[in-house]
Design goal:
- The chain has no helices and 14 strands.
- The protein is 0% helix and 43% strand.
- The strands form 4 sheets. A 6-stranded mixed β-sheet has the order 1-2-7-4-5-14, with no helix packed on it.
- With 174 residues, it is an all-beta fold.
């Protein structure tokens, strides 16, 4: 069991990506894929479901999806920063960022922006550190960047912990 037995999935930072490689069922139009989750708490980004893998060797999971929806799970405590406008040129620094904070654990992200030159020196790079401090009892996340401090209250219950992000996406326990 584990990653050696599930060669279709891969980690990309704190994201676990599991491409669907089997054909879809003709009746349901869903494809099933066996996946292995490393130990920890994971949130399915497309569906918002929460999965716990308490054992040291992780756990197996069967995911059913339409072929156009790739399963991507984020580790609890992930801070995922990306360009808000995907139509901006890839070589330019984005004008606006989106930040997705995944609940359930502390985490951090270091954003590095350079001046666009082929060999930026140390003075041509701006670094912004985002840190997440998760308080499970309070159901809140406090995140800190090098420029300001924010406190975000998450409405949680046993059945629906939240993912704090601009769209206020919600998760559902498995």
């Amino acid at each position: 069991m584990g990653s050696y037995d599930n060669r279709n999935e891969f980690l990309f930072g704190d994201l676990l990506v599991m491409p669907i490689t089997r054909p879809a069922d003709r009746a349901s139009r869903l494809a099933r894929e066996e996946a292995w989750l490393p130990q920890g708490t994971w949130f399915d980004l497309p569906t918002g479901r929460r999965y716990d893998a308490a054992a040291a060797d992780g756990r197996m999971l069967t995911l059913s999806r339409p072929l156009e929806q790739v399963p991507v799970l984020a580790r609890a405590g992930s801070v995922i920063v990306g360009a808000e406008d995907l139509t901006e040129p890839a070589g330019d620094n984005p004008r606006h960022l989106s930040v997705l904070v995944v609940p359930g654990a502390d985490g951090e992200f270091l954003l590095e922006e350079d001046d666009g030159s082929a060999d930026p020196g140390p003075d041509a790079v701006v670094r912004t550190r985002f840190a997440l401090a998760w308080d499970e009892a309070a159901g809140s996340a406090r995140w800190i960047s090098t420029r300001r401090v924010r406190t975000a209250s998450c409405r949680t219950s046993e059945r629906s912990p939240c993912i704090y992000c601009p769209s206020a996406a919600r998760s559902r326990p498995a």
